[in-house]
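Backbone-to-sequence.
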């Protein structure tokens, strides 16, 4: 595994990071997952050293990974939730050592777009990635998971045609997520990405739609430093880049 500092976004460029600085540690890039690079080398045990809140998937695209308070869970395609052992490997995941810098009570009745707009008011994006955690009641949730794939792996869009969708009402639990600026597209997905797990750890998945309920409490923090671990293997090397002819740097 070769570690790259993919982006260094340091507020104020001070000698020491501000006390509120949070890191995002990410395994691989979304574009590789999109192309079917579903097996990685990084274990959840390694991931746990980098953060305690996050999301992703596990090798073989085996379900939805949810990381809450340093515990790792898989929501399988049959809807079951199981805690995962540290030797489990991931092809794509992201975690942060979550310390919210902003907390607020979430208004009820917001859909995903409404929640996104409300979150932007609580902590304006300022061209940074943000980590989000919401604990409480959700009036409606539309969740999905994906079945484990077998090689040769299809692209993600093909695999997602086999997704299972779960709908639930009035669930208490934790929403875990990230908000990425448009420039992050390819390395990750621009916009909001949420995974959910209920309080009983029996229901969850990737969030397709939601309506917030009450009570619910949100915590947000700004990510200033991003580390991306790029897979040093043949599958990643063979994955075609998104842009065949990248725009050259402007010359002045
Ligand atoms: Zn997801």
């Amino acid at each position: 595994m070769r570690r790259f500092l993919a982006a260094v976004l340091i507020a104020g460029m001070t000698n020491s990071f501000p006390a509120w600085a949070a890191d995002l540690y990410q395994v691989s890039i979304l574009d590789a997952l999109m192309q079917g690079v579903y097996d990685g080398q990084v274990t959840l045990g390694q991931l746990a050293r980098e953060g305690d809140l996050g999301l992703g998937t596990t090798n073989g695209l085996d379900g939805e990974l949810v990381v809450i308070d340093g515990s790792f869970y898989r929501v399988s395609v049959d809807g079951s939730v199981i805690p995962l052992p540290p030797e489990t490997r991931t092809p794509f995941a992201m975690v942060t050592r979550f310390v919210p810098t902003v907390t607020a009570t979430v208004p009820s009745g917001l859909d995903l777009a409404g929640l996104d707009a409300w979150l932007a008011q609580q902590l304006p994006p300022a061209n940074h990635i943000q980590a989000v955690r919401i604990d409480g009641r959700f009036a409606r949730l539309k969740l999905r998971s994906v079945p484990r794939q077998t090689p040769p792996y299809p692209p993600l869009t093909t695999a997602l045609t086999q997704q299972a969708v779960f709908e639930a009402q009035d669930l208490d639990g934790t929403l875990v997520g990230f908000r990425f600026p448009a420039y992050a597209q390819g390395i990750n997905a621009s916009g909001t990405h949420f995974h959910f797990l209920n309080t009983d750890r029996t229901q969850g998945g990737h969030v397709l739609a939601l309506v917030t309920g009450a009570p619910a409490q949100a915590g947000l923090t700004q990510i200033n430093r991003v580390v991306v671990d790029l897979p040093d293997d043949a599958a990643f090397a063979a994955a075609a880049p998104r842009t065949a002819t990248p725009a050259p740097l402007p010359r002045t």
